[in-house]
Q: What sequence folds into this?
C-alpha cells in the first residue's frame, strides 16, 4: 500500500476521517448535499413514517429538515440502529451509529424491518449500484450473476421497498455506470414490465441525484424534473446511459435550500458531512 | 441446558477466549455472527475461530456483515454464505468478498435478503418449519436466483401463491453484549440490532462482553437484560473485543484501521499479511491491541 495513501489518513480512531475535506471553503456555501437533502425534505409529507437504511446521510438530513420545517408529525427510523425519530445530535455517517440513539425509541432491527415488511411504513429510501429507466435497482451483482464484474454487497432491505406506499431513490453518484438502461439483477423491482401491467400499477416515485431530481412518467419511464444549480440538462443526459423523458418546456432548476433550511441543517450537520459526501 | 458448578452452586460460564472457542467442534453446521455493519461485532471471538481453524458449513451474513464475513471467507473456513449484505456501508465494498466472487470461488454464494433471513430465524426460534413471506419479493431476481432458499407456497386459507423460506436455526451464534453477569445475562448498552432474536434462536450462543457485572446488578434492572442466561453457553470478557468495529456506548468503529484493512485486502498477499499481523499473529487480545495502537502497517503490502 502506498505511503501516499497512508499519509492521507490521520492517526487515531476517528470515524469521520473518511469525510474530512481538504478544502474548508467548501463547507461554507451550499453544496449539492444540501440541495439533495432539501429536495428530500420537499418530497416528504407531514405525518408520514419513513424507513432509512444504509448510507443514510442524505435521507436522514432531509427527513430531519422536513420535521423542523413543514412536517412536524413525520416519523423517521434510522434503519440499523433502530432509532425512532433520532435528533441527529449530530448527523452521523453510519446507519448503525450510536449517535442515532439520541431518539424517542430504539427498536431491535428485526422489528424495524419486519414492521416495514408488514406495510406499516409510508416511505422507503433506497439506492443501487445500478438504477435503470424503469426504477429497478441492483445491489447484488453487475454482469453475470455467477461470475460478476462487480460483486455488490447484496440486496439488503430494498427488495421490500414495495411494501411502503412510496419509494424514493437516491444516489451520491450520477454517472453512466449507475444509470443503465436495464439492471443486471433486480434487488428492488421498478415500474411494471409488459407482462405485469394490470397486476402492478406503480414503482419508485422520485430519484434524487447529485445532478438532478427525476421522477417517472405515468407509464413508468424515468423523467427529468429539475437540474441542480450549475447543472445543465445536457450534463444529466451525458451521465445517463439511456434516454430520459423530458418535462414540457424548459427544465427548471431544483429549489436551492433557503437560508432557514441551511441554518437548520447546520444545527445537526456539525461535521459538514453533507458538503463532503456530495461537494460542489 | 444450564449446568451447575461442582459444589452444587450455580455455575459460572466465564471462560477465556481460547477456552470458549475451543468448545466448538472442528466443523459446525452453521454460524451467525451478531452485530450489524461495523457495530457490535464480536471480532475477538471471530479472530479466535480463525486461529483455531474452526470450520462452518453455512455462514449467515445478515442482516449485515462486514469484517467477520471477510475474515471467515478469506480464511476459507466457510463452505457457503447466505448473503443478506456484506460490506462496509459508507466506507465501501468488501474487498475479499469481491475478489473471491469476481475471480470465481468454491464458496457457495446464496443470494438472499435480510428480511427473509430474519423471518427464517424467527421461525427457527419458534419451531416453525418455514416462514411464509409477505408479497413483493416475487418481482425481484432473488427467487429465481436462489430457488433453494426461496420456495413457492400457497396460503392454505386463501389459496394465494407466495414465497417462503425454511426455518433458520444456527448451530453457533457469536454475539456481543457490553456487559453480562457470570451466568450470561447480557445487557446491550446501545442498539441490540437482531442479536436478541439470534440468541433466542441459535443452538449455542457464545457471548463476548466488555466487562462483567454482578448478578445483583442484573436483578436490579431486569428490563435491561437483552439476552437471558439460559441461552448462553459461554461468557467471554474481552476489553475492546469488537475492534475495529464499534461497541455501542463504549467505543466507535476504528475508521482508520478499517480503511487500511480495505486497502490491504484488495490483494491476496495484502489480505494474508493482514491476517498474519492482526489475526493469527497476536497471541492474545492485549498483543492485538498493541499492534493496533502501533499503527505500523509496514509489513502489509
A:
Amino acid at each position: 500500500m502506498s505511503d501516499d495513501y497512508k499519509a492521507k489518513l490521520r492517526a487515531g480512531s476517528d470515524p469521520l476521517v473518511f469525510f474530512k475535506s481538504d478544502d474548508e471553503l467548501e463547507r461554507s456555501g451550499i453544496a449539492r448535499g444540501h440541495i439533495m437533502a432539501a429536495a428530500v425534505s420537499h418530497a416528504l409529507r407531514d405525518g408520514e413514517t419513513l424507513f432509512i437504511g444504509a448510507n443514510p446521510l442524505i435521507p436522514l438530513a432531509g427527513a430531519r429538515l422536513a420535521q423542523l420545517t413543514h412536517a412536524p408529525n413525520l416519523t423517521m427510523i434510522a434503519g440499523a440502529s433502530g432509532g425512532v425519530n433520532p435528533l441527529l445530535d449530530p448527523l452521523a455517517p453510519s446507519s448503525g451509529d450510536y449517535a442515532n440513539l439520541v431518539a424517542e425509541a430504539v427498536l431491535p432491527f428485526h422489528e424495524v424491518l419486519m414492521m416495514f415488511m408488514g406495510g406499516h411504513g409510508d416511505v422507503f429510501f433506497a439506492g443501487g449500484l445500478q438504477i435503470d429507466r424503469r426504477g429497478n435497482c441492483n445491489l447484488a451483482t453487475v454482469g453475470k450473476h455467477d461470475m460478476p464484474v462487480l460483486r455488490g454487497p447484496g440486496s439488503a432491505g430494498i427488495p421490500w421497498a414495495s411494501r411502503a406506499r412510496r419509494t424514493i431513490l437516491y444516489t451520491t453518484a450520477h454517472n453512466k455506470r449507475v444509470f443503465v438502461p436495464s439492471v443486471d439483477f433486480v434487488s428492488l423491482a421498478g415500474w411494471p414490465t409488459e407482462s405485469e401491467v394490470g397486476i402492478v400499477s406503480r414503482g419508485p416515485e422520485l430519484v434524487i441525484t447529485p445532478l438532478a431530481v427525476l421522477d417517472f412518467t405515468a407509464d413508468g419511464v424515468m423523467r427529468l424534473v429539475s437540474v441542480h444549480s450549475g447543472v445543465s440538462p445536457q450534463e444529466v443526459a451525458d451521465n445517463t446511459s439511456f434516454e430520459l423523458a423530458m418535462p414540457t418546456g424548459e427544465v427548471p432548476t431544483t429549489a436551492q435550500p433557503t437560508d432557514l433550511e441551511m441554518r437548520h441543517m447546520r444545527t445537526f450537520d456539525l461535521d459538514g458531512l453533507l458538503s463532503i459526501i456530495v461537494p460542489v | 441446558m444450564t449446568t451447575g458448578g461442582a459444589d452444587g452452586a450455580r455455575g459460572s460460564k466465564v471462560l477465556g477466549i481460547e477456552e470458549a472457542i475451543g468448545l466448538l467442534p472442528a466443523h459446525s453446521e452453521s454460524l451467525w455472527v451478531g452485530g450489524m455493519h461495523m457495530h457490535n461485532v464480536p471480532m475477538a471471538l471471530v479472530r479466535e475461530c480463525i486461529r483455531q481453524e474452526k470450520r462452518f458449513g453455512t455462514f449467515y451474513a445478515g442482516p449485515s456483515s462486514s469484517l467477520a464475513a471477510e475474515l471467515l471467507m478469506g480464511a476459507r473456513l466457510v463452505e457457503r454464505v447466505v448473503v443478506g449484505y456484506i460490506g462496509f456501508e459508507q466506507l465501501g465494498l468488501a474487498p475479499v468478498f469481491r475478489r473471491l466472487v469476481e475471480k470465481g470461488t468454491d464458496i457457495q454464494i446464496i443470494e438472499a435478503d435480510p428480511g427473509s433471513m430474519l423471518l427464517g430465524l424467527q421461525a427457527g426460534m419458534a419451531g416453525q418449519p418455514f416462514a411464509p413471506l409477505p408479497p413483493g419479493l416475487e418481482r425481484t431476481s432473488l427467487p429465481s436466483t436462489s430457488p433453494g432458499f426461496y420456495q413457492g407456497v400457497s396460503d392454505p386459507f386463501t389459496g394465494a401463491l407466495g414465497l417462503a423460506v425454511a426455518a433458520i436455526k444456527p448451530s453457533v451464534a457469536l454475539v456481543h453484549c457490553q456487559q453480562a453477569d457470570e451466568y450470561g445475562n447480557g445487557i446491550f448498552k446501545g442498539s441490540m440490532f437482531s442479536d436478541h432474536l439470534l440468541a433466542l434462536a441459535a443452538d449455542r450462543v457464545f457471548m463476548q462482553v466488555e466487562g462483567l457485572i454482578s448478578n445483583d446488578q442484573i436483578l436490579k434492572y431486569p428490563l435491561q437484560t437483552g439476552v437471558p442466561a439460559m441461552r448462553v453457553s459461554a461468557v467471554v470478557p474481552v476489553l475492546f473485543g469488537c475492534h475495529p468495529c464499534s461497541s455501542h456506548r463504549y467505543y466507535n468503529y476504528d475508521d482508520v484501521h478499517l480503511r487500511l484493512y480495505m486497502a490491504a485486502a484488495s490483494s491476496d498477499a495484502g489480505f494474508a499479511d493482514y491476517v498474519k499481523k492482526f489475526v493469527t499473529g497476536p497471541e492474545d487480545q492485549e498483543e492485538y491491541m498493541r499492534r493496533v495502537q502501533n499503527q505500523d502497517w509496514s509489513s502489509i503490502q
About this structure: Chain B touches chain A through 66 residues (CB under 8 Å). The mean pLDDT of chain B is 96.
